[in-house]
Amino acid sequence: MRTIRIHVDQPLAVGLALALPAQAGEHVARVLRLVAGDPVTLFNGDGHDFPAVIETVGKREVTVLVQAAQAIANESPLPLTLAQGVARGEKMDLIVQKATELGVARIVPLLTERSEVKLDAARAEKRLAHWRAVVASACEQSGRACVPEVSPALPLEAWLKGLADDGALRLALLPEGDQRASQLRFTSAGGLLVVGPEGGLGQRDTAALADAGFMGLKLGPRILRTETAGLAALAALQALHGDI
User: Do residues 52 and 128 share a domain?
Assistant: First the structure.
């Protein structure tokens, strides 16, 4: 039987009774048609799964009782941050979803020289909430109990100025890059991977990245679309240096 995993953004503990979030409760009751006594698994991003049982299914809410706590050890030993130039429409959703499935530790939406997406304050807040919901859903599906952080969208140079000198390998996907994935050597700090939007990274972007110590990473002889490039790089790095 497939495990039904539900993200709950609150502290969880054995013996806790709680109502599921409205959207999750509606999915459990109307789509999955679960009933009292059926098992579900909750998680809140703290690295544990919390097996629970449905207590009541009502018209307006579903309540569950947490029965156990289980540590989940399926996070990659290679912590990677994907700093992705914001892509249009559903492309960004795809990138966020699949990066989560591939084990990314953090996602930073970037506004770069050639970004076509414009975000005012209200739209940026709405998109951030949406991307975080996509990440939570991807964790439900993939079995992750640690939820990757999604940062607010930032201009590239502002993000670079705030970077900590923590030893993470700094990489930017560039067609002219001279680094290959197989040649890289990571420390426990992992890596930062910058990917441009649809139009790629501009000259000001690449100059700023070079000044900040980023190396150009080349995946191969073909030019990849933005929704392919970062995911291909994550998969390659996880296969060569992580847990795939």
Answer: no
